[in-house]
Design a protein that fits this description.
Elements lengths: L1 H26 L1 E8 L5 H8 L2 H4 L2 E8 L5 H7 L4 E4 L1 H9 L4 E11 L5 E5 L15 E4 L5 H12 L8 E4 L5 H6 L5 E5 L2 H8 L3 E4 L1 H5 L2 E10 H6 L1 H20 L1 H12 L8 E2 L5 H13 L16
């Protein structure tokens, strides 16, 4: 009789062992994550390719987007639940009435690992803010991080902003527009920065962001507040998946570069300064700049931008 019961007991044991795995699969949070075309988001790509999102119970669809300024509206539309952007973009979105928050950092911009720079066309040299007076400066968007950084640089040197002339140019077109002398200078970020310089379309002159601050938050992950409140576990798992992705990059840099090439069609020679931690001071920095240029008629509480 004991032998007759053995198959049944083994079957029951197998079912019990399978139950937790099935429960985990059923409890996975489905979401869409929007990423940008920069190495800042390599930890997410690694997390997707190496099964780290699934490990953390996230059933994620990844979509690329060219301009982080569009991320707040994409979240509002429900097309995505988490998206990349910059501190300046989320501050202006919240000031405009959107109830969105920062769920994680992506990368920092540091003087030790510069990833931005002002590039000038042939025949133009810029070494100090005054050299930009009368020049046409290409930026990816007005009131973007790069635009505001130039304005801070000017204001810090007691110059008035009416002496600046900005031209909105999409990142992919900046090299051609510089080469054609339609603009005199452009604010670029990696990987496009190195590509434009290598092509001969321009020469790097000043790392304005590092001149403003040796260490600042450059890119972030955001979500709608109501979604984050309803999915606190998923937010925690998302952060953990990014941390696992960063650890993998450090331990398997060659394989990480292959993953980067899959998403960007090439691998950058130097990695960004990845950092998921976010601090109130990171946003106070950008809020102060926005106030100085007159973009914040209503106050924005930096502490309320960060999701606990």
């Amino acid at each position: 009789m004991r032998q007759g019961r053995l198959p049944a007991l083994l079957a029951l044991l197998a079912a019990l062992l399978a139950a937790p795995a099935a429960a985990l699969a059923q409890s996975a949070t489905k979401l869409t994550i929007v990423w940008g075309y920069a190495g800042d988001y390599l930890p997410l790509w690694v997390a997707k390719e190496k099964g780290l999102l699934e490990k953390h119970h996230l059933d994620a669809t990844l979509n690329g987007l060219g301009n982080g300024a569009q991320s707040p509206s994409i979240l509002e539309s429900g097309s995505a639940q988490v998206a990349f952007t910059t501190p300046a973009n989320i501050i202006l979105a919240v000031e405009g009435g959107l109830d969105q928050i920062v769920v994680a950092g992506a990368a920092r911009l540091t003087q030790a690992n510069p990833r931005t720079g002002l590039v000038t066309r042939a025949g133009v040299t810029v070494a100090k803010p005054e050299d930009l007076i009368g020049k046409r400066i290409g930026v990816p968007g007005l009131n973007s991080t790069l635009d505001l950084s130039i304005k801070k640089w000017f204001l810090d040197h007691q110059l008035t902003l009416d002496k600046l002339t900005f031209v909105e140019v999409p990142f992919p077109q900046m090299g051609d527009v510089l080469k054609g002398a339609q603009i005199d200078a452009a604010m670029l970020v990696e990987p496009l920065l190195s590509r434009v310089i290598a092509s001969g379309a321009g020469t790097k002159s000043v790392d304005i962001l590092s001149a403003n601050s040796p260490d600042q938050l450059g890119s972030i992950w955001i979500a709608k507040r109501d979604w984050a409140n309803a999915n606190k576990g998923a937010v925690a798992e998302f952060r953990a998946a990014l941390a696992d992705g960063i650890a993998f990059i450090r331990e398997h840099s060659d394989e990480a570069k292959q993953i980067e090439a899959k998403y960007l069609n090439f691998a950058e020679p130097a990695l960004p300064s990845f950092a998921t931690e976010i601090k109130t001071a990171d946003f106070i920095y950008w809020i102060d700049i926005a106030k100085r240029v007159g973009l914040l008629p209503q106050p924005v509480d930096a502490a309320k931008l960060i999701f606990d």
